[in-house]
Amino acid sequence: MSIVTLLPFIVLIGAMFLMTRSAKKKQQQAVEMRNQMQPGTGVRTIGGMYATVKEVGDDTVLLEVAPGVHAVYAKNAIGAVLDDDEYNRIVHGDGDLKTDTPVVPDDASSLTVDDAAADDAAADDDVAKIDLGKKDAADEPETAPEAEGAKADDKRDGDTDAK
């Protein structure tokens, strides 16, 4: 066997080693993060719930999800241990939210046109209105009886005798 034949296998084994190494590294960081938990620490669960740690056991954590409401979670269910500043900003709304993008208003009042421009647009609409609706039979002028006979024989507009 030559080295050229073994090269693809060596590359494949090396890639698998690197992937498992990075996965183990991430898993070790998650374990260290969960071991940092102490009573009073703010956490986010993997389900997205924010809570405060009350007690830490070997495999479980007692969380206060609301004032006076406690729940027992597995340690593996903790997605992130948060700093006090970040936890208070998210849960209690403390601190300023710093963004570079403009904030969208809650109502549409700033999206409407001012009154003077709206009056000008309405005046232009009144002048150029066209009625595209069907006319009623009462709106049509009455025709003479001899004109009706001539109209019945005229079949140019798609009128037919078949009913």
Tell me about this structure:
- This protein is of the alpha+beta class and 163 residues long.
- The model has no long low-confidence stretch (mean pLDDT 77).
- A hairpin with a 4-residue loop joins strand 1 (42-45) and strand 2 (50-56).
- A 5-stranded antiparallel β-sheet has the order 4-3-2-1-5.
- It has helices spanning 3-35, 84-92, 115-127, 145-153; strands at 42-45, 50-56, 60-66, 69-74, 78-82.
- The termini are far apart.
- The longest helix has 33 residues, at 3-35.
- Which strand order spans the largest sheet, edge to edge or round the barrel? 4-3-2-1-5
Structural class: alpha+beta
Order of helices and strands: HEEEEEHHH
**How big is the Rg?**
38 Å
Question: Residue-averaged pLDDT, rounded?
Answer: 77
- The amount of helix comes to 25-40%
Please report the total strand number as a whole number: 5
Pick out its properties.
163 residues, 18% strand, alpha+beta
Please give the structural blueprint.
Layout: H1 3-35, E1 42-45, E2 50-56, E3 60-66, E4 69-74, E5 78-82, H2 84-92, H3 115-127, H4 145-153
What's the short version?
The protein has 163 residues and is of the alpha+beta class.
